[in-house]
Design a protein that fits this description.
mainly alpha, three-stranded antiparallel sheet, elongated
């Protein structure tokens, strides 16, 4: 077996595995309930552009159908990840924090449930004491003295 044959098989195996590796990413995207916030569209777009530029190079300069097809498939999967991510984010933009049953209260950094009228309902997570009005008398309950 020639060295050129070995490198071709190594290329085919590596890129074949890479094609299979896109599937778990797509499955996680379809299941993501947060609008796929952990996915970088810029990164995946650059991956797609790099793969598609390799398609052009392999088709025009090398005239190699194997490399062309392999990178065309890789580029298509990268584009699919970008398209699914955009679709997930568009769906999530249509959901208001007041109509979504569980949301992150970004002001206090904790999970909260919201009633349809927009009032936070936190008893299930934090207990009834979380609805108490804050003490604004200028004294501290813990130190018994003035907070100034």
């Amino acid at each position: 077996m020639l060295m050129a044959d070995l490198t071709f098989y190594f290329f085919a195996l590596g890129n074949g595995l890479r094609i299979v590796a896109y599937v778990p990413q797509l499955v996680r995207l379809f299941r993501a309930a947060d609008g796929a916030q952990a996915v970088s569209c810029v990164t995946w777009s650059l991956f797609a552009a790099a793969n598609l530029s390799t398609v052009l190079y392999a088709a025009i300069a090398l005239r190699d159908p194997h490399v062309t097809i392999m990178f065309l498939i890789n580029g298509a999967f990268c584009l699919a990840i970008v398209i699914v991510t955009f679709a997930k984010r568009q769906r999530c933009r249509g959901v208001s924090i007041h109509t979504h049953p569980v949301a992150v209260d970004r002001h206090v950094g904790r999970l909260a449930r919201y009633q349809p009228d927009g009032e936070a309902w936190e008893e299930a997570l934090w207990g009834a004491s979380s609805r108490e009005e804050p003490i604004s008398t200028g004294t501290s309950r813990h130190h018994g003295g003035n907070m100034r």
